[in-house]
Amino acid sequence: MNIKHLLSNITTTDHSFEVTGLSLNSKTLKKGDIFVAIQGEKNHGSDYIDNAIENGCIGVLIEGEEIDCSVPTIEIDNLRIKLSTLAENFYTQAKKIDLIAVTGTNGKTSVSHFISQLLSSLKIKNGVIGTLGISNLDRKSINTTPDIFTIYSALEEYSDQGFRIAIIEASSHALVQNRLEGLSFIQGIFTNLTQDHLDYHQTMDSYRNAKGKLFKSALTKKTIINRDDDNHDYFLSIASDKEPITFSISDLDFYKSSEKGFICQLNNFVFELPLVGNFNLSNALAAYNSLRYMGHSDESLIPLLAKLSPPPGRMQQLQKSNIWVDYAHTPDALFNALATFKVHYPEFKIRVLFGCGGDRDKTKRQLMGKIASENADSIILTNDNPRSENPQKIIDDILDGIKVENDVQIILDRKHAITTAIKTLGEDEALLIAGKGHEKTQTIGSQVYQFSDVEVALDAFI
């Protein structure tokens, strides 16, 4: 697309050159892309123009004065608020498929992937954009919800490949930062709201309001709300949809634990849900209600619930052992995972291994320590992603919530901690490795290392 065409409803320019893509990230920019330099949370994109040029950028859009560099630069006032217009101008096919947005503190990934699994079983081509990356396009994602250009370009590819539906995990950061600007959704789904990201939002009210942006917009056609969450009245009250759908675990006629998960009855259908944890009952019901709203019958849907499988790193059992890996990195998620262990392993002692991320919400560390203290028999504290913080300081914050009499080990090296936990696990013990789940890297200081809880744990079996 010619730059004049791209900017036709934004600004005029004397430049004329062909653009092959848009990018906000100099590292992922491809040859022929135009680099859009805006103010980020910590740095301005202008700091990375040289890197963008090295990677093949063909021009720069910038807010403020034009910069003297080896490629054309075009100054645009209020550039940030024009990102969606740029995306719509370039990725003209992106809005031709139906979109579903899933938001909440916990459960976004599971609900998104359960919806995707159900759609795939019904032979409906679909994709997921979220924490685990961008499915079917072999793309990784830096954030739960990628930047606006990455989303639009992925949707364009989905559309070109004949996909009918895309499910997007909508983080609170993304909603505040307008990464979903210009998109409309056939459904917006709310899972739950518990403490997280207060380093960014400061207060729970601000965090809740950020999530609420999805439902206030008339661009979200149907609202689907978990009424088991204490905040459901708020989301119902602000929703532009005046006939929202709600769901609750109480919608099940009955459910009881089984070896694989739960035996359930829903609308006179009895089935086994192969997922552990009450939270997964809720996640499965969210996915079920999503497809019911699309017009699929109980006769076609409910048998498929019995075939659901958890996404990687979400209550993932390793080789039918008593060792599980879970992404639980919030107080509520850790509590739910340990509560699941108590149900699944009533005769076993429970060991939990976890840490907390650096440069993130510090107030949840003591809470997570308290939850581990009250729900596990032994605790191993280790590094999560300490980032720029002193790892021992993070551990000390967690220890503030742990009772003195608890059995606690501190092993900062996460690989050594996981290996030790597995090698010393008794026959009457079950182990939860919590916090990183599917993640393939660990950030210590400014260095990013390859690291997978699952791979380290499996190696320790040998």
Mean pLDDT: 94
Structural class: alpha/beta
Biggest sheet, strands in spatial order?
7-6-8-5-9-10-11
DSSP strand tally: 22
What's the main sheet like? 7 strands, mixed
Question: What is the structure about, briefly put?
Answer:
The chain has about 450 residues and is α/β, with parallel strands linked by helices. About 35% of the residues lie in helices and about 20% in strands.
Secondary structure: elements and pairs:
Elements: H1 3-6, E1 21-23, E2 33-37, H2 49-54, E3 59-62, E4 73-75, H3 83-90, E5 98-103, H4 108-121, E6 126-130, E7 133-134, H5 148-160, E8 165-169, H6 172-176, E9 185-190, H7 198-201, H8 204-216, E10 220-226, H9 232-238, E11 245-247, E12 254-257, E13 262-266, E14 269-273, H10 278-293, H11 298-305, E15 316-317, E16 323-326, H12 331-344, E17 349-354, H13 363-375, E18 378-381, H14 391-399, E19 407-410, H15 414-423, E20 429-434, E21 441-444, E22 447-450, H16 453-461
Helix pairs in contact: 3-5, 4-10, 10-11, 12-13, 13-14, 15-16
Describe the structure.
The chain is of the alpha/beta class and 462 residues long. It has 3 domains: 3-80, MurE/MurF, N-terminal domain (Udp-n-acetylmuramoylalanyl-d-glutamate--2,6- Diaminopimelate Ligase, Chain: A, domain 1); 94-305, Mur-like, catalytic domain (UDP-N-acetylmuramoyl-L-alanine:D-glutamate ligase, 3-Layer(aba) Sandwich); 316-461, Alpha-Beta Complex (Protein-Tyrosine Phosphatase, Chain A). It contains 16 helices and 22 strands. The chain has helices spanning 3-6, 49-54, 83-90, 108-121, 148-160, 172-176, 198-201, 204-216, 232-238, 278-293, 298-305, 331-344, 363-375, 391-399, 414-423, 453-461, and strands at 21-23, 33-37, 59-62, 73-75, 98-103, 126-130, 133-134, 165-169, 185-190, 220-226, 245-247, 254-257, 262-266, 269-273, 316-317, 323-326, 349-354, 378-381, 407-410, 429-434, 441-444, 447-450. Helix 10 (278-293) runs antiparallel to helix 11 (298-305) and helix 12 (331-344) runs parallel beside helix 13. The longest helix has 16 residues, at 278-293. It is globular, with a radius of gyration of 23 Å.
